[in-house]
Amino acid sequence: MDSKGNPFSFALTSLASGDGGSYGSYYSLAALEDERIDKLPYTVLVLLESAIRNCDGFQITKDDVEKIMDWEKTSDEQVEIPFKPGRVILQDFTGVPVLVDFASMRDEMCRLGDDPDKINPMVPADLVIDHSVTADVVRSESAVQANMELEFERNKERFACLKWGSTAFHNMLIIPPGSGIVHQVNLEYLGRVVFNTNGLLYPDSVVGTDSRTTMINGLGILGWGVGGIDAEAAMLGQPMSMVLPGVVGFKLYGILRNGVTATDLVLTVTQMLRKHGVVGKFVEFYGRGLAELALADRATIANMAQEYGATAGFFPVDHISLEYLKMTGRNDETVSIIEAYLRANKMFVDHDEPQIERMYSSCLELDLRNVEPCVSGPKRPHDRVPLKDMKTDWQACLANKVGFKGYGIPKDLQEKVVKFDFHGQTAEIKHGSIVIAAITSCTNTSNPTVMITSGLVWLQGKLVSWALRSQTMD
Known about the structure:
Blueprint: E1 12-16, E2 22-27, H1 42-53, H2 62-69, H3 71-74, E3 80-83, E4 87-91, H4 92-111, E5 125-128, H5 143-154, H6 156-168, E6 172-175, H7 182-190, E7 194-197, E8 200-203, E9 205-208, E10 222-225, H8 228-235, E11 240-243, E12 247-253, H9 262-276, E13 282-286, H10 295-303, H11 305-308, E14 312-314, H12 319-327, H13 332-344, E15 362-367, E16 374-376, E17 384-386, H14 390-399, E18 417-422, E19 425-430, H15 442-445, H16 448-473
Parallel strand pairs: 2-8, 4-5, 4-9, 5-6, 9-10, 12-13, 12-15, 13-14
Antiparallel strand pairs: 1-2, 3-11, 7-8, 16-17, 18-19
Helix pairs in contact: 1-2, 4-8, 9-10
């Protein structure tokens, strides 16, 4: 947008680089000289910066900017604001219909006698092909290659359409099959954290056609899931109308004990937030505990926003975020620009410096040292049960009335055993037997530590099974 038509063009400031040059320009929040801004949550700052940068007096007005700056009052009044995200992310199941719609718009341009090449996304759109993989081949070194070949054969027509789209449209990137799940690719590769578009710097923000888009909040990128129509509108440069949300501050302090996993932490956080009530709100994590919380653990918590009901669970950018960017291949210059911009615009958290106490709609806190190993269920993720109480809880669930914490099994049937043949061997199951256990959620696949732990548990199970079968054969 032409900054000359922006009433906040006076806030456009040059960002100096370390060598005396300039990284580019940005809309400085400090230049507004409004003391209300200093205590706004980081999530609200992202909304504010977008409104200032895109303010044109038509789609986004000065009154909209004022509503956001006055968040402490307006967040309780259910006021609506326009928001333009920095980009859109799609996966193949929802992305193909979007691509077809854009192709239809090009056909209509041809019918009207105009140039079809004018139809392109106005904001960057990334499409990751990841939802069509079926594991036909397993337990083989060639499993990945064999499954990929089957995938290409089954989806030949759809992939041909996507291949065309990757060259036909500007401002659209299509990630081919076999690169990983959309949310992991977003975290490790697509996430910009700070955009540099023709010398204009601004925070990365994203909406996606998947409820798990929220995982990106672990990297300090504000994002959440939307429907296909909303995604298309955003791609066409239309602002999203949203209720200015309340923000729940969640303070973390202490450090996780040895043996406590990200899964234990996320189940504890989910239970607390479900009890507190965060539907339609942002959750913003802060506190000294973040300095010791790995980014993979943050992503695991952010991914679970759907379970605790929030629009997003946000972790502001700090040194842990920068280290992750370097680890995942972002070059030093890019990371330097990200840090310089966020520090200049008061969006970076330095745990070694005094922190400004920010305003929140309400607050929770958790001492990470008190998180203990736990499981969820038997039916809902927020029905957290400490591991030490699992046996007692399970027995109670068997007898309880049928519901979320009950199966209604009569007492005389609770010890029932059923025998059957398995590969020529006699086996038996009873209530509580583990028939199948698997990790299929991107909540866990985002976290290497949890994945390795699950692999070790699986291996231990195989060894125990092998030992028991050997004893039977002997």
